[in-house]
Amino acid sequence: MQAQIPVTRDLVLIGGGHTHALVLRKWGMSPLPGARLTLISPDPVTAYSGMLPGHVAGHYPREALDIDLVRLARFAGARLVLGRAEGIDREARRIIVPGRTDVAYDIASLDIGIGSAMPSLPGFTEFAVPAKPLDDFADAWAGFLARVAAGRARPQVAVIGGGVAGVELALAVRHRLGPAANVTVVERGAALSLIGAGAGRSLRAAMVEARVALLESAAAIAVDAGGVHLSGGGHVAADFIIGTAATRPQTWLRETGLDLDAGFVSVGPSLQSTADPAIFAAGDIANMVHASRPKAGVFAVRQAPVLHHNLIVALTGKGQMRAYHPQRDYLKLISTGGKTAVADKYGLPLRGGVLWRWKDRIDRAFMAQFDDLPQMGTSQLPDPVAEGVAEDMGRGGKPLCGGCGAKVGQADLKAALARLPAPVRADVLSGPGDDAAVLAFGKGQQVLTTDHLRAFTNDPWLMARIAAVHAMGDVWSMGARPQAALAQIILPRMSPDLQARSLEEIMSAAVDIFGAEGADIVGGHTSLGAELTVGFTVTGLAAAQAVTQAGALPGDWLILTKPIGTGVILAAEMARDAPGTVVAAALASMARPQGAAARMIAPHAHAMTDVTGFGLAGHLFGILDKSGVAGRISLAHVPVLAGAEALAAAGHGSTLLPANRSSMARMFMTGGARADLLFDPQTAGGLLAAVPAVGALDLVRRLREAGETAAVIGEVTQGEPFLTVED
């Protein structure tokens, strides 16, 4: 048996720019054993700059621009920290990400891009949109198009900056808005001064043909809701103002002590910072002191192989660093609104539709690298295997899910618990089967529960937050206040330094979540194993009688506080088929505590539970069985996470899904993807409560005002435990 290789070094990529995206792809093709790779990005996707003008012009849909960092990180075996880095403590080798524990590193690399905001221009921040960051600009452009279509904005656009980027965007805007649009480019000096004269003439001709106005030697002095004010008293009317004139690095870099040139990180031929060999930089944020070049995506792309090689050298201490020497001239293909383009290289001007098709092929080929990620390390079952192995693993050897998707099925669990003897102590008030054990405690009651989660993300901090929320779900659902917690943590094999780093992240997250509920962490147990597992044993106090699953009455309404769908989303993400934005929303839902919601519901609840591994249907049957009643729910009123239904329709599902479907024998329903979500195992799911019909809508209103996605999904009815599902 091959020994598990310990993790000993932390490589952190700060930013999801083009260079880092390519490095992630290379890493996934050939990962470095013993290195833990982390990507820090504020967004789950990043936009590709080459296709932005085509998107603005209407040639590409929004999703065509997106490099899915969640999918790419899964392919690379990297943990993805969804947050914005705002500092580097080089002495402690930590990256500061507000809202979470600092991220430790041994080697770090910066590819955070730049902005084009002009905060010194009065009114710009309030009334204009910088072209960079690209994601924010694309979202703002979509909003403007919607306002124009609704008649709430005029098709009048001003572009501040007459360089290639400004002119290309202006032509794209004009094409998209049509002949009724007024588009003006404002340039304080001479427009298109950084490209060849022939290409410049071709672009100027394209602007004349498209009726895009160009104002040169016209400085913008202020921006307001009506447009751009110019020096000399001129004014350009506009309902949408784009800024392209600035190249603005992030200001927090000034506090790092790195060598900077106009705010950009100075690097040598190896792409290492000239001030700190443990920090690399690439893309627009890098200032190549050995070969100064303008900001262009071509350099970011061609830096990737060199950066990847040099990061491996830095992590292993073996081999020689490679030098990156950028070419002095490169082909520029500049779109002109419609499906035509201008070429500029070595002063040679060209223009035509064939050039746009050439550019389109180049851009699509670049994006295809991230769409068509190869399946790496897939293994076939050995032959022979014991009878039943193939059937248990499922067709194609589907890997075991994480989170609650890794639980034992409800029927098997009930069968095992049925053999346990009834409690014999007088102070043990409940046996197995409810959400938590209920113990006599003075004049009140104490509840006791335990839960743990097999990791579905490589981020220990996020796993700990979700595991803490998940573990407290049983306490909240019984109307109790969390009191104390013990941690149970299994770390994959790693060096003592990385053990300390990981435990610090886990415990910091746990302290935040439990502390906010007034609970103390009082100890626990740690060990090393095959994979990350985080769990907690939690006690809670109820001033009066705990709320159980028994007690629901006919006529009660059923309230659910969180949308369902985490199981199918996590399963699809493991298969690299879930969109990054969908995964990010699911993780945010899982990490949202339910203490405040529980305290609002508990005083009214006749019965309550939390929705976890057995799915909404399975946990609702827990209430119906213990209360001796039937139920009816409206599938249309059950809140569902964005993307979950589409993923279910595509055939994705948790490994626990087939076992959860066993409850269908006691249900009347019409099948379909949305109905399948009733059996989807939830991790850190919402609360499900049976409350009196009188006041239920007011309770839901108050829950929504508190930020919950609560909904009335059905009612309790008279009869033997049975569930009717209406479309």
Topology:
Layout lengths: L8 E6 L3 H12 L5 E7 L3 E3 L4 H6 L8 E3 H8 L2 E4 L4 E3 L4 E3 L6 E2 L2 E4 L13 H4 L1 E2 L3 H16 L6 E5 L3 H14 L4 E5 L10 H14 L1 E4 L4 E5 L2 E4 L4 E3 L2 E4 L16 E2 L2 E4 L11 E3 L4 E3 L8 H20 L15 E5 L1 E8 L2 E5 H19 L17 H5 L16 H8 L19 E5 L2 E11 L5 H18 L3 E12 L3 H21 L3 E10 L3 E10 L14 E4 L5 H9 L5 H11 L4 H7 L5 E4 L4 H13 L2 E5 L9 H6 L7 H4 L6 E2 L4 H4 L10 E5 L4 H10 L5 E7 L5 E4 L1
Parallel strand pairs: 1-2, 1-9, 2-5, 9-20, 10-17, 11-12, 11-17, 12-13, 19-21, 27-28, 32-36, 33-36
Antiparallel strand pairs: 3-4, 6-7, 7-8, 14-15, 15-16, 18-19, 22-23, 23-24, 25-26, 26-29, 27-29, 30-34, 30-35, 31-34, 32-35
What would your notes on this structure say?
Strand 22 and strand 23 form a beta hairpin. The chain folds into 4 domains: 9-113 and 249-330, FAD/NAD(P)-binding domain, CATH 3.50.50.60; 124-243, FAD/NAD(P)-binding domain, CATH 3.50.50.60; 399-411 and 548-727, PurM-like C-terminal domain (Phosphoribosyl-aminoimidazole Synthetase, Chain A, domain 2); 435-545, 60s Ribosomal Protein L30, Chain: A (2-Layer Sandwich), CATH 3.30.1330. The chain is built from 21 helices and 36 strands. Helix 12 (460-477) runs parallel beside helix 13. The strands form 9 sheets. The chain has a 7-stranded mixed beta sheet with strand order 31-34-30-35-32-36-33, with helices on both faces. Strands 5-2-1-9-20 form a 5-stranded parallel beta sheet, with helices on one face. Strands 10-17-11-12-13 form a 5-stranded parallel beta sheet. The longest helix is centred in the last third of the chain and has 21 residues, at 496-516. With 727 residues, the protein is of the alpha/beta class. The radius of gyration is 29 Å and the shape is globular.
